[in-house]
Amino acid sequence: MKFFTALLAALLFVSCKSNQVNRTIKFNITSTSDYCGGAMPSEEIMESLITPSSFNGTLYFHKNPDRSDKGIAQEFKNGKASIKGLVNGEYAIFKHPPINMDKLENNDSDENLENECEMMRNLQMLEMVNIDKETKEVSIHIHFMCDPCQEPMP
Questions:
Q1: Is 18 part of any domain?
Q2: Rounded to 10 degrees, what is the CA torsion of 32, 37, 40, 46?
Q3: Strand ranges in 77-136 using DSSP code E only, listed in sequence order
Q4: What is the domain range of residue 91?
Q5: Which of 60, 61, 78, 98 could form a disulfide with 72 if both were Cys (CB 3.0 to 4.6 A apart)?
Q6: Residue 93 forms part of a structural domain
Q7: What gap in Å lies between CA 8 and CA 33, rounded to an integer?
Q8: Quick one: DSSP state of residue 93?
């Protein structure tokens, strides 16, 4: 019986390793955004928001769009980053770090509207990207919408 258990464990290990991609994938990300201010902006401001520019900051990659997996946080500088160890499949990209959804759902306080907003922001996906065995480089454009939890500007 021990032999079969060891054999099964070895087969599972080999199959899990074959799903991992042992390579570095280069990402190039540009972004645009909505205007989230108050008063009517100038034409220059509006033009700058709709003109794609290199993304700087952190994005979060998850295999599960509900963010139930650990995910990967990746810093981008001048729109570029390299990520190692991505398995084949689709990844959902998010702007905000993941939150503990169970904690928010089980909170019985008066903060229910705020909790609903936090849950909505947590699941606000920017883009999906597909990684397969041929993927070496990914160039995508993301568009940032206004933060649903932010107070309206005057």
A1: no
A2: -10
A3: 80-84, 89-94, 125-131
A4: 23-144
A5: 61
A6: yes
A7: 50
A8: E
Look at residue 3 and tell me if it is in a domain.
no
Please say whether the beta carbons of 49 and 35 come within 8 A. Answer: yes
Contact 118, 99 (CB under 8 A): yes
Which residue type occupies 114? E
Average pLDDT rounded to a whole number, residues 63-67: 94
Q: pTM, whole model, 2 decimals?
A: 0.77
DSSP string for residues in 39-87: SPPPHHHHHHHHS-EE--EEEEEESSTT--S--EEEEEBTTEEEEE-PP
In the chain, what is the straight-line distance between the N-terminal and C-terminal CA atoms, in Å? 71
- What is the overall mean pLDDT for the chain? 83
Q: Residue 114 maps to which CATH number? A: 2.60.40
What is the pLDDT, as a whole number, of residue 104? 56
Q: What is the pLDDT of residues 9-63, one digit of tens each?
A: 454 444 444 455 578 999 999 999 999 888 888 999 999 999 999 999 999 999 9
Residues 6+ apart with CB under 8 A from 37: 153
Residue 17 domain flag: no
Residues with Cβ within 8 Å of residue 58, at least 6 apart in sequence: 73, 74, 75, 76, 97
